[in-house]
Design brief:
Elements (H helix, E strand, L loop, with lengths): L14 H17 L1 H13 L6 E5 L5 H9 L4 E6 L2 H14 L5 E5 L20 E5 L8 H11 L5 E7 L17 H11 L8 H7 L2 E11 L8 H15 L6 H10 L18 E10 L2 H4 L1
Parallel strand pairs: 1-2, 1-4, 2-3, 4-5
Antiparallel strand pairs: 5-7, 6-7
The structure holds S-adenosylmethionine.
The site of S-adenosylmethionine has 18 residues, from helix 3.
Length: about 290
């Protein structure tokens, strides 16, 4: 979404959060189409309007925004441990007109289910949404069990993860060796990036029935204008993170792709694409009948 209104934050004291915020927003602009697909799956599984929707690890509000739009009568509770991201989200909600329905909760999810979310004055959450966040939590099984307890009996938990790294280039990028993006993805995986198990058995152990399990392809057509900037930011970060891991040939190829002057650079070449995916689990508390 619009990066411009975030500029005045760039003098703050959490540089990683700034960087992550801009990559999250670029991802939303280019790849955000999966969110409505996932919300459709929730709607299919929840035969009523939710009153309370919780966004776990809300970041800059990529999912929060769409959840608020699609569940337009619900109270939205956004949980994150970053005060800066919570502030961005508050501004975003004000701009989008749902600030009066949004509650941001600053909590470290490693410490368990946040007490502020389960307000005994109101009912339990009807929807819990955890997009690219469950694998960050130190003890995801404990978290899932707590989510199971917190949810209404017919409530829905949606767990979403990236199906690998986004791909921008043809297999032979015309610089260095072909298969560059595949090797970058492998190197990132070796470094532990985006590592998560098949959540199905974890969900079942925590007392959930998995009612849908989908892979959503994200291949926007036409290509959003932010795709070039996303490629530059993605590979700039990756170039730093993998400087000790990638071969010299691949690092040199990345330098050409990220350069200003080469016709093969991301911002000058005309053959970029965008291919990504998400994996979605839709789960609801198992009934006693199913447990026995
Ligand atoms: C990859 S981002 C995903 C953001 C958003 N859900 C999305 O799909 O764009 C992960 C988010 O989880 C938050 N997070 C990670 N570990 C956390 C923890 N232990 N407690 C609270 N929030 C956490 C981060 O601050 C970040 O905003």
């Amino acid at each position: 979404m619009a990066q411009s209104h975030h500029h005045h934050h760039n003098h703050g004291e959490h540089p990683q959060d700034h960087q992550m915020a801009s990559v999250l927003d670029l991802d939303a602009a280019v790849a955000g189409g999966y969110i409505d697909d996932a919300i459709d799956l929730i709607r299919d599984a929840l035969p009523r309007e939710p009153k309370i929707v919780v966004d776990i690890g809300s970041g800059t509000g990529t999912g929060t925004d769409r959840l608020a739009a699609r569940f337009d009568a619900a109270e939205i509770i956004a949980v994150d441990h970053s005060p800066e991201l919570a502030e961005l989200l508050t501004e975003r909600a004000a701009a989008a007109g749902y600030a009066d329905r949004l509650r941001t909760v600053l909590a470290n999810l490693d410490d368990g289910w946040p007490a502020e979310v389960s307000n005994p004055e109101v009912s339990n959450p009807d929807v819990v949404w955890a997009s690219s966040s469950l694998h960050h939590i130190a003890d995801p099984d404990r978290f899932l069990a707590a989510a199971r307890t917190a949810l209404t009996d017919d409530g829905i938990l949606a767990v979403i993860e990236l199906a690998g790294a986004p791909k921008f280039l043809p297999d032979d990028p015309g610089v260095g060796l072909s298969g560059l993006e595949g090797r970058c993805q492998s190197a990132m995986s070796v470094n532990g990036w985006n590592s998560f198990p098949d959540w199905t058995t974890h969900l079942q152990s925590a007392g959930f029935d998995v009612v849908a399990h989908r892979r959503i392809r994200v291949e926007p057509d036409p290509l959003p204008p932010q795709t070039v900037e996303y490629a530059v930011q993605w590979y700039s970060r990756l170039r730093v993170g993998l400087a000790e891991v990638l071969d010299a040939d691949d690092l040199a190829a990345l330098d050409v792709l990220l350069s200003d002057d080469s016709p093969l650079a991301f911002h000058r070449r005309g053959d970029l694409t965008f291919r990504a995916g998400r994996i979605v689990w839709i789960a609801r508390p198992a009934t006693e009948r199913n447990l026995s």
